[in-house]
């Protein structure tokens, strides 16, 4: 699945820009402030309906404007092209359309490649709260095993229902025995989610360590630390054991909503003790590990958006990074200095700022 074009009209500093894209590595080159990051944000927004830089989509609206809009043209392996459009308006809210028509999230996701982003703001995946890493791991599992795509949602709904009853019980309404049905439902949703996460990390751990070593992060490890383990029956028993405590708290204190994905070097947590450079390398290594796993499984290869990835790598590691990206898929790399980008990543170059409404690919 290939993105053949991205159009921003407008978005942040991009007034009306269209860029055509090719397979392989595309380097987006331009001075600071030229709109490189805005361009890949526009692409991410068009495909996912979200931003990787902010939780408030209205931040994408240009200063003094009322609308931000981006379109991406995606070509399937069968040669069929479709257009995904995302927009956010101060008056009408947000829209995410497929060929001009509303579509459910599952259909939209099937109509685009998975998207992985490296950007300075994305370091929260390494140094931020566990929820960021859980969501990322579940996203990989859904891409790796599409039949498991609803596990996260299913568990979220089950634990929310259990928590609603716990909150009522904490307020003195209802009987503790009423929790039995929700304990069973929560356990039934928890067990397959834990299994998927465990299998995902088992598959990623080796490629993660190898990619990290190439980037100068020797002794890196990826580890799944589940809060709850065991069969559905064992998880249900564990919930029952904690019933009184959960009623006092008014929420579920045990389960995969509290799991952690640990990234470490030589046994030390990168979240707590890693330097900025180590955290950047770990994020890159994780993205590369996921990409390798999907390639080997012959799933849809992720589209990689690498923002300012070269700035803290020495020439040797830049070459190794580009070498890793030459095995298929599509990658956009931004850089202020063309000389910082190895020759292997300069076969297709987009120069920023591009001519308005015209192709800027060279």
Describe the structure.
The chain has helices spanning 36-48, 105-110, 124-127, 130-144, 151-170, 179-214, 232-241, 243-249, 270-273, 276-296, 315-324; strands at 2-8, 17-20, 24-29, 67-75, 81-89, 93-98, 101-102, 115-118, 220-225, 260-265, 268-269, 303-306, 330-335, 349-351. The chain is an alpha/beta fold and 362 residues long. The chain folds into 2 domains: 1-114 and 300-362, Rossmann fold (3-Layer(aba) Sandwich); 122-299, RecF/RecN/SMC, N-terminal domain (Glutathione S-transferase Yfyf (Class Pi), Chain A, domain 2, Up-down Bundle), CATH 1.20.1050. It has a 6-stranded antiparallel beta sheet with strand order 2-1-4-5-6-7, covered by helices on one side. A 5-stranded parallel beta sheet has the order 8-12-13-3-14, sandwiched between helices. Strand 4 and strand 5 form a beta hairpin. Helix 5 (151-170) packs across helix 6 (179-214), helix 5 (151-170) crosses helix 8 and helix 6 packs across helix 7. The longest helix has 36 residues, at 179-214. The two termini are 22 Å apart. The model is unreliable at 358-362 (pLDDT under 50).
Strand and helix layout:
Blueprint: E1 2-8, E2 17-20, E3 24-29, H1 36-48, E4 67-75, E5 81-89, E6 93-98, E7 101-102, H2 105-110, E8 115-118, H3 124-127, H4 130-144, H5 151-170, H6 179-214, E9 220-225, H7 232-241, H8 243-249, E10 260-265, E11 268-269, H9 270-273, H10 276-296, E12 303-306, H11 315-324, E13 330-335, E14 349-351
């Amino acid at each position: 699945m290939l993105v053949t074009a991205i159009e921003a009209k407008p978005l942040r500093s991009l007034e009306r820009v269209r860029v055509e894209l090719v397979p392989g590595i595309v380097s987006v080159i331009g001075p600071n402030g030229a709109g490189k990051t805005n361009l890949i944000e526009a692409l991410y927004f068009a495909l996912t309906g979200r931003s990787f830089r902010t939780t408030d989509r209205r931040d994408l609206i240009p200063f003094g404007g009322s609308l931000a809009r981006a379109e991406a043209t995606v070509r399937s392996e069968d040669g069929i092209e479709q257009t995904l459009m995302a927009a956010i308006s101060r008056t009408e809210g947000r829209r995410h359309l497929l060929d001009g028509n509303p579509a459910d999230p599952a259909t939209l996701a099937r109509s685009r490649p998975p998207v992985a982003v490296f950007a300075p703001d994305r370091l929260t995946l390494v140094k931020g709260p566990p929820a960021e890493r859980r969501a990322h791991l579940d996203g990989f599992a859904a891409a790796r095993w599409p039949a498991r795509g609803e596990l996260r949602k299913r568990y979220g709904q089950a634990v929310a229902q259990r928590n609603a009853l716990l909150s009522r019980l904490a307020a003195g309404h209802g009987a503790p025995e009423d929790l039995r049905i929700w304990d069973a439902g929560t356990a039934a949703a928890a067990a397959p989610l834990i299994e998927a996460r465990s299998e995902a990390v088992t598959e990623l751990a080796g490629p993660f360590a190898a990619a990290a070593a190439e980037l100068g992060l020797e002794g890196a490890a990826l580890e799944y630390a589940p809060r709850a383990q065991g069969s559905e029956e064992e998880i249900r028993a564990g919930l029952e054991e904690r019933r009184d405590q959960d009623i006092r708290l008014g929420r579920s204190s045990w389960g995969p909503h509290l799991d952690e994905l640990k990234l470490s070097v030589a046994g030390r947590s990168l979240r707590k003790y890693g330097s900025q450079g180590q955290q950047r390398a770990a994020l890159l290594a994780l993205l590369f590990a996921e990409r390798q796993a999907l390639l080997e499984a012959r799933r849809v290869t992720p589209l990689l958006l690498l923002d300012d990835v070269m700035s803290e790598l020495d020439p040797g590691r830049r070459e190794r990074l580009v070498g890793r990206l030459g095995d298929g898929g599509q990658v956009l790399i931004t850089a202020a200095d063309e000389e910082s980008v190895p020759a292997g990543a300069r076969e297709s170059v987009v120069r920023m700022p591009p001519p308005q409404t015209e192709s800027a690919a060279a």
